[in-house]
Amino acid sequence: MTAEDAGPAAKRARTDDAAEVADAPMPDAAPDAASEGEDFAKYTVTELMKLYYSRLFPHQDFAKWLAYGNDSKHAQADSQYFQRREFCFTLEGDIFVRYQSFKDGDELQAALVRRLPAKIDIGPVYNVDPQRRAAVAGGERAFAPVERELVFDIDMTDYDSVRTCGKEGHICHLCWPLMAVAIKILDEGLREDFGFNHLLWVFSGRRGIHCWVCDDRARQLTDEQRSSIATYFAVYKGEEKGLAKLALSYIHHPAVQRALEALNETWIETILPNQELLENEGNWEAVLAYIPDEDVRDTLRSRWQAGRVLKMADDSINVARWHDLVAEVDKAAHKEKDLKRKGALSRCKDEVVFAYTYPRLDMEVSKKMNHLLKAPFCIHPKTGKVCVPIHPERAFDFDPDTVPTVAQLLTELDSNNGKSSMDDAVEVFHEAFLDKLQLASRETLAAKARSAAAKPTLAW
């Protein structure tokens, strides 16, 4: 479960057994069948969940993803695979119900419509059906996860110290490039450096993004391997005394250099002007703090306070001041005789860019196989927005302000002959992820069949 969605433990009633809450009262709901011209905006998100789960939630595509081809009649398919997957429902009243399992997408949808969870979390695939864990020889100790997607979670609140457009739950088109460049860097790194192919990127519904790495190899990683991959991307290590702690060396690792090229472009084109990071003294002092030379800081500060900056026609004042900073730092580095100070001056420009723009991962989410993460296509209870997939090649075009709400979807459904913006979200799900994954899953089953056929037997 992500920090974004989990409330304080003391405020959450928890249970592991569905039977304990089977008779819990369900939330009030909008009518099962809307009248013509129904104003869905008058209902709360909770009241619309039954209509959403019964009419819009793409349960069959959802199940096809998590079955990984094992829902087919192929001889090598594991018909029990999907049923060994853990689902966790957060019900009305913050009742947290773990170890739910279902034989297929239809049974999942029936449970969603019946129980109306405010949130669905996805856990690992276990060695037995999670609902039968108590019957395993050896009890709970013998019940263990055997497979789980490698996941990443990035929350916009972790950028509050470097963005000016808003804080906490706020997200908008001005700060979205921070998420878009994070997608670009992680997507390229996971594909090019680790050879993964099947990555699902999802908007969290409020202020962040999730990544599901779904290759066979990724799902079978140990906790130690997951932690190592997450650490590989952990250039940003938190903050100390107002400055970012960064794992950077004088000569950049190729992956860091590749990231820097992407970050520099985004920094100049969107983040500097959008966030107005050099617009005024309150903002520019935080940037100047990274320059390890007091004379350079004083020179830039005096020049900017006096308004003496050559501004190109197409540049914002923020971009113009950045070019001024780069030139002044380069001049000081060129004159510096002390090699250590010269190196520090040369690095400080990159440190600013990494400090303000590099992905800030929630490391704990990625490290453990049994960590829960919110499912795609959930409805965020506070915003009413759908957790829609994001095409990684179009991440900079994504606008969190235009993500559909459940009320909007239901209105579209009734006024557009059964069509809605959910169709677009499902299309992205297929185009960017599911279609290629299903092809790979079929190839995996075929390879298992060939391997089985090649094994020697005692038959004459």
TrEMBL record:
<dbReference type="GO" id="GO:0003899">
    <property type="term" value="F:DNA-directed RNA polymerase activity"/>
</dbReference>
<dbReference type="GO" id="GO:0005658">
    <property type="term" value="C:alpha DNA polymerase:primase complex"/>
</dbReference>
<feature type="region of interest" description="Disordered">
    <location>
        <begin position="1"/>
        <end position="35"/>
    </location>
</feature>
<keyword id="KW-0808">Transferase</keyword>
<keyword id="KW-0240">DNA-directed RNA polymerase</keyword>
<comment type="similarity">
    <text>Belongs to the eukaryotic-type primase small subunit family.</text>
</comment>
<keyword id="KW-0548">Nucleotidyltransferase</keyword>
<keyword id="KW-0639">Primosome</keyword>
<dbReference type="InterPro" id="IPR014052">
    <property type="entry name" value="DNA_primase_ssu_euk/arc"/>
</dbReference>
<protein>
    <recommendedName>
        <fullName>DNA primase</fullName>
        <ecNumber>2.7.7.-</ecNumber>
    </recommendedName>
</protein>
<feature type="compositionally biased region" description="Low complexity">
    <location>
        <begin position="21"/>
        <end position="34"/>
    </location>
</feature>
<keyword id="KW-0862">Zinc</keyword>
<dbReference type="Pfam" id="PF01896">
    <property type="entry name" value="DNA_primase_S"/>
</dbReference>
<dbReference type="GO" id="GO:0006269">
    <property type="term" value="P:DNA replication, synthesis of primer"/>
</dbReference>
<dbReference type="InterPro" id="IPR002755">
    <property type="entry name" value="DNA_primase_S"/>
</dbReference>
<keyword id="KW-0235">DNA replication</keyword>
<keyword id="KW-0804">Transcription</keyword>
<dbReference type="GO" id="GO:0046872">
    <property type="term" value="F:metal ion binding"/>
</dbReference>
<keyword id="KW-0479">Metal-binding</keyword>
